[in-house]
What does this fold into?
Amino acid sequence: MTVSASLLAAAAVLCAVGGILMLTRPLTRILLGAVIAGNGINLFILSATGTAGREPLLYGVDLARVTDPLPQAIALTAIVITLATTAFLLAMAYRGHQLTGTDEVHDDLEDRRIVLRAEVLDERDELRERFRADGDRSAEARRAYRDERRRLRARLRADRALQARGRDATGDLWHDVLGADPEDYAKSAGDPRSTGPGPDAQNPGDTG
Amino acid sequence: MNALVPLPVLLPLCATGLSLAFGTRLKQIQRLISVAVLTAVLGLSITLMIAADRNGPLSVHLGDFAPPLGITLVADRLSGLMLTISSAITLCVLVYSLGQGMADRDEETPVAVFHPAYLILVAGVSCTFLAGDLVNLYVGFEIMLVASFVLLTLGGTGPRIRAGSTYVIISLFSSMLFLTAIAMTYAATGTANFAQLAERLGALPLGVQTLIQAMLLTVFAIKAAVFPLAAWLPDSYPTAPAPVTAVFAGLLTKVGVYCMLRTETLLFPGNRLGDLLMAAALASMIVGILGAVAQTDLKRLLSFTLISHIGYMVFGIGLATRDAYGGAIVYVVHHITVQTTLFLVAGLIERRSGTTELTRIGGLARAAPALAVLFFVPAMNLAGIPPLSGFIGKLGLMRAGVADGGVWAWILVAGATATSLLTLYVMAKVWNLAFWRAAPPGQAAAGTVLESDDDSDDDDADEGPDRMAGTGDEGVRVRHQPAGLAVAATLHGHAVTTTSVLPRPMTWATAAAVALGLSFTVFAGPLTSYTDRSAAELLARRPYIEEVLGR
It folds into this structure.
């Protein structure tokens, strides 16, 4: 079986271009990448035909010399399916644009949490270094330092509330074992908001 | 009898057209069509299973074209069993979703595409189980995927679009990989038919064989969510409506496992990549279950246990003995049922208490004893507590591993034991948090309508829930409703009405799924002997090849 090198080269280039596009953020580019890579793979399927022969028709052509029609059928199927998926992706990109103003694929939530955590910890270490190196032990500096640290802790607490509430000690062993959210119990101690969780509880009328 | 083989694919496809034609004008008829068709498919599948068991594989060449050209559909013991279980489960989930739709007063804001998309999904799943050649398998995958795209992004809310884009892109990528693998196979052997491939692949150079095998395994591992290729699953599944997540978790990943079973036995006998598969299985089990330990949202937690338990089936495939295949098939059957049931229960819990975030719910054992029982049985089943089917599957796999006696097999047996203990720990944690402890303050009372916010990434809102959608920690708003106004909380968005009385069809559908899981214990004898016969048939290869090529 001889294979056309130009077909293979074109397929490789298209797949490479499509692959690079698929690694980008915006959904429309991913879509274009998928279409281009899909075309590359279709060429690749066609190259499985081997040597080019006569057109694969039933009548009037010597059957021994026709091109193998099966890869063409497979490629056609793939083209139709790619068309449908493309239409769906387009609709999805448009819907994403409608909802968020951009069609980018967002970060994975877990990744975002890990990044936030690392950021906050770095910032805290830096702050501590600076405070120690400064040597300024006045009440003013100490309060500023404490405020900064409190701010960072608040950020981390929000993060931790998301992923491992159980790790905060409530002082109640039973709740710690269960992994209950300590904020629930802190709130119920005296916070009137404990009945309606969430920042929007004061504003109940505006849901659509 | 052979003429029945294409029907599990054709019936739902034709019914889709009918269902679309009726649309939402005659909702009763649409529901009736879906239920009737899925019941018929269930009946057909049972017939096919019994026929394949008695008389060997059944096959059909569509359009009567001979194998390399035509489309071949084959039903052997394994396909028959998979078809039966999948249609039973899809029927259960359909009834559940009908209950949810009716309880949510779907009439006002109907989801016109749900029924047709669901039927197409069923057709696609049946097509992959019956496919007798690689191209048809690819087409089956695509039918299933396109339907699953629609179901996953139902309603088009922000979180679902975001979750959906990950899923769509990863599926597109795996489809491309699959096409490339098909092209390679065709270029090397000149056919895509399984039976012919089984005869011709052995003659190829070892390197080419291994390349094709590795390509196909990669594709199926993405579908089955085996560890290094599973990152997409916990991000995309939990945001979908409960019945959709349930059917995805139960079926779509097992389709990947089925394809691995089929290709590893029929096309690539000799188990050359067994050690690699076992390493992937071990990583899958351990990483998945550790992920589940760290989660506090029930749906995400269940998604991670799903990844973890796929490891058991891959373990069986990697061992590649008759006992191991038998154990793997039992495990597939058990896991489809149990995982679906657990997701259905998660949907019921969401309906009862407004969220699946475990830190926000509690006291359900007292408040909803029936729900507690419905959760407890499949949870223990998943962990593998002795009389239940999880134990039977794990026992079969571990016995096969011990009988094999290799280093990897022993490591995997140890890993599987640790994983099942950790699963028990995870399930106990869920049980304690959601059911056993007293209800935490701030839990939504019955009858409130809760609505998830759209995901907005305002980082300055530090107190309270962080409003990251999909984590179960979205901001919860209590909506005050004028008395007597119907609330449209539908499959559309992520809105939930909490009720103390759960809609009856949902509860009964879940109970039926639990009962199906229990029946595997009652009929463990017939089931294991059937799976043993299927494993023997898979390893023998001859009946399959002769049935397809022998006329």
User: Anything to note?
Assistant: The radius of gyration of chain B is 23 Å. Residues 362 and 440 of chain B are 6 Å apart (CA to CA). Chain B touches chain A through 68 residues (CB under 8 Å).
